[in-house]
Design a protein that fits this description.
Helix content is 30%, strand content 28%. The protein is an alpha/beta fold. It folds into two domains: 52 residues, no CATH class; 193 residues, Vaccinia Virus protein VP39 (Rossmann fold, 3-Layer(aba) Sandwich), CATH 3.40.50. Strand 7, helix 7 and strand 8 form a beta-alpha-beta unit.
Length: 260
Amino acid sequence: MLPRYRLQFPVEQEHQISQAEAYFHLIDEGERKKILFHDYDRIYAKPGLYEQLFYDRLKCTSPQKVAELLQDSLTSELLSCTELRVLDLGAGNGMMAERLRNLGVARIVGVDIIPEARDAAYRDRPTAYDDYLVADFVNLSDDHRQLLAEWRFDCLTSVAALGFGDIPPKAFMTALQLVRTNGWVAFNIKETFLDHSEVSGFSRFIRELIFSKHLDVYQLERYTHRLSMEGVPLKYYALVGRITSQIPADFLKSIEIETA
């Protein structure tokens, strides 16, 4: 049975600080420790802390939502999840993989940039992944690229990992290029990333990809990703699409997004 932790949210309202700056206090062995929501290495080190914070306390629904929309899209084409070979980018401790396994997905390979994520996945969900790589997709090594190519992925998933600097545009682009033509992509993003007032490179990349000839969008649904610290719903979009043609290597440069 997983341990339960004593958590305290700060007095500041979450809407007064950016989502990337949100934090909580963990009372651990009598010591009060400040931990950012994006301090994944520290959160994953505590078995069950990630689930208690984001799923029990803040009611995150994203793995379930993205998995359901992916299944609906496949069903609309008379296809089955059981045949998919999935690359799970920003895999964390395996929450999305667990949902995919419940759908009967054949093969799942996890990728994250921090070893603590892989360690937590193997500790908490030892049968979720067929393999799990710690790799930097901005500067993916030739060995990792070859290893991943041998899986012949026909689906890419990425949940609660895009748009906050965790996965830069180049990293997501690299992952997309590992998925075969007619393969699937399923991910979620904060609702503002589809707003033209949002000028970040990642936001521009996603908008250009959605309207490009390289992606056929099957599902685009606005939903509540989770609650803020004061209980306000945080709205995201879940997207499922099919890659209609290989995305060219110069796609990011063509829309003037820095790739270095």
